[in-house]
Amino acid sequence: MLTIASYTVMGALTLWISYSGRYRSWMAWPFATVDVVVAVASVWLGLLNVELVGAYAPLIPASWLLVIVLAFGTLRYNPALQAWLTALSAVLMALTVWHTDGFLGGDWILDADAEAKVFMVSPPTAMRIVMLAAAGLVMTLAVWRARQMLVRALDSAARRQNLRRYLPHQISDMLEDGDIGVLRSGRRGQMTILFLDIRGFTAMSEKMMPEALATFMTGFRDLVTRTADAHNGIVDKFVGDGAMVVFGLQQQRARDPMDALACAEALAAAAGDNDPPIRLAIGIHAGEVFCGAVGAESRLEFTVLGDVVNIASRLEGAAKSDDLPIVASADVIAAAGVEAGTWRSLGARQIRGRAEPLELFTPA
To answer: How sure is the predictor about 88, in pLDDT bands with cuts at 50, 70 and 90?
Structure first.
């Protein structure tokens, strides 16, 4: 009853401290120490209560509380505290066995058979204490190993989070989990590329204070990132007031061109609702590109390269020069399977860097 009452009071006190916000990490040490002391005190009082010598300590039910205390200690992920609990439990149990043996004069109060009594003398009891200490040592090593794994996991999560501050999470995952050799070898694939730029940004930025300009660019880039994510696109890079969005980088899909067109229309509409309102020039082209890590060993960059990227950039320039919100190539329109009448043809244009003229389209 005393043991149960003691643990009930300590449990209630611990809950109150935790829920009231008063808990501090150092408090685990006194609370855990009291757990061991109460358990051993219960064993000692149990021996005195039934007038048994210390060798019979393992027969007292309260002795198993020490195993529970040590097992519970592993949940704290504190190897130093676990080692302290192990040493304290072994020492206090050894003192309990010695003290009660001496106090009671070593008489065998329990009338046991000789065969059974041989397991209740001091040497086997001492071995049980050693095994308790060994179990505690194993738990201490387990806690140390678990803590090391937890620290590594938290460190890896922190590094990944920091990487995601500078790169899209899809690309940061590929860089963290992938083999650099494989990433440098790269791969080819069919992708849709979208370039966008703010019209008249230079004149607009000249009228802004640096703080206001930083706030504006943060909001603009957040808008582009959220819109690209909503349409399964990945912002490969931001360059000043422009951005390059890739569709099909992780996995090529038949609807990538359709997603790119929908993303462009959503960006154009959102830009008009922005505060202050802005106008975008957007160019879209699709085809085979190379993606992978390029650059020197000291400075690698994951990017998308190819003629398709250059053409998409040229189409963004065509949208700006023709004062159009979006210009898409015939390749994108055909691959997206857009409904007739929703996009109108601008005719075939000669694009710099391309031998053959390319038919261009803009929203009707």
So the answer is: very high
Q: What is the pLDDT of residues 199-235, one digit of tens each?
A: 988 888 888 898 888 988 999 999 999 999 999 998 9
Structure tokens at 84: 């302290």
Q: In sequence order, which residues have a C-beta less than 8 Å from that of residue 101 and are 6 or more positions away?
A: 53, 54, 55, 122
Burial of 244 (0-12, 13-18, 19+ CB in 10 A): buried
- Measure the CA dihedral 335/341/342/348, to 10°: 60
pLDDT of residue 233: 92
- Angle at the Cα of 239 (from 235 to 240), degrees rounded to 5? 125
CA 182 vs CA 299, 318, 326: distances in Å: 16, 36, 36
Mean pLDDT on 187-201: 91
Q: Strands 326-329, 280-296: parallel, antiparallel or unpaired by DSSP?
A: parallel
343-349 vs 187-198, strand pairing mode: unpaired
When pLDDT is cut at 50, 70 and 90, the band that residue 162 belongs to is: low
State residue 269 phi and psi, 5-degree precision: -70, -45
Q: What angle do CA 192, 196, 201 make, to 5 degrees?
A: 175
Question: Alpha helix (H) ranges present in the chain?
Answer: 2-19, 28-49, 64-73, 79-103, 114-117, 122-164, 169-177, 180-185, 201-206, 210-230, 256-272, 307-321, 330-336
Predicted confidence (pLDDT) at residue 178 exceeds the cutoff of 60: no
> Model-level pTM?
0.57
- The DSSP-derived string for 269-302 is HHHHTSSS---EEEEEEEEEEEEEEEEETTEEEE
**Interatomic CA distance for residues 8 and 332, integer angstroms:** 71
Neighbours of 224 (CB within 10 A): 23
